[in-house]
Amino acid sequence: MKKYIIFTLLISLCFMQRGENRPHRGGDNPNKDNKKQNQFQIMSDEAKQLFYQTEKISPEQAFLYQLSLPLPFVNLGYAYSDNWARGIKWDLAIIGAILLGDYIEDEECDQFNLCISKNQDAQDVIGFAIIGLSIYKMVDVYQTAERYNNKLFRKTFGRKKPSFALGYSSDIQSPLLSMSIPLNK
């Protein structure tokens, strides 16, 4: 059985073809970016929309991934949006704040072993800063996914993404839906 599998693999390797977008043996193709631009220009609007729908990421899903494990260096939301460096930057800021809070912790104990912190206000501020940074990470992961989708739309269609708004009119007492489509690039 092993001989047949090896034989099949060897035969299949002989019939492999090099794709059109693969670089040639001489190295990277200098017209690689031009080919990608031309590829989007010759695509139909339906093909562009299909490409955009398959490649975009969900900001809500990135937010939920980040919310599921808010531990430092476990950045599922940033991993989903493929932005590891940004997540590590905020994790290092949180770890720095924790270390700063540990450094300024100075207690004074009396004869009954009741310890009172001298810098309680500073520790409270640092504690709120840590909580604030953790919340900001979740907001930032959502915004990062939105920026990725906007760049993808601009690269695919060559224009700014349309925006939608939902409001409420007190005059007619009903919700209003509006759509904004930029006419110029």
Short summary:
The chain is mainly α and 185 residues long.
Describe this structure in words.
This protein is mostly helical and 185 residues long. The protein has a domain at 54-150. The chain is 58% helix and 11% strand. The chain has 7 helices and 4 strands, in the order ααααααββαββ. It has a two-stranded antiparallel sheet. Helix 3 (45-55) runs antiparallel to helix 7 (120-157) and helix 4 (59-68) packs antiparallel against helix 7 (120-157). The N and C termini lie far apart (61 Å). Residues 19-27 have low confidence and may be disordered.
> Which series of helices and strands comes N to C?
HHHHHHEEHEE
Structural class: mainly alpha
Question: Could you tell me the strand content as a percent range?
Answer: 5-15%
Question: Count of helical segments?
Answer: 7
**Rounded mean pLDDT score:** 78
Helical fraction: 55-70%
Instruction: Name the assembly state.
Output: single chain
Amino-to-carboxy terminus distance: 61 Å
Going across the biggest sheet, name each strand in turn: 1-2
What can be said about the biggest beta sheet?
2 strands, antiparallel
Number of strands: 4
Shape: flat
Low-confidence stretches: 19-27
Cα Rg:
27 Å
List the helices and strands and how they pair.
Elements: H1 2-14, H2 32-42, H3 45-55, H4 59-68, H5 76-80, H6 84-103, E1 107-109, E2 115-117, H7 120-157, E3 163-169, E4 174-180
Helix pairs in contact: 3-7, 4-7, 6-7
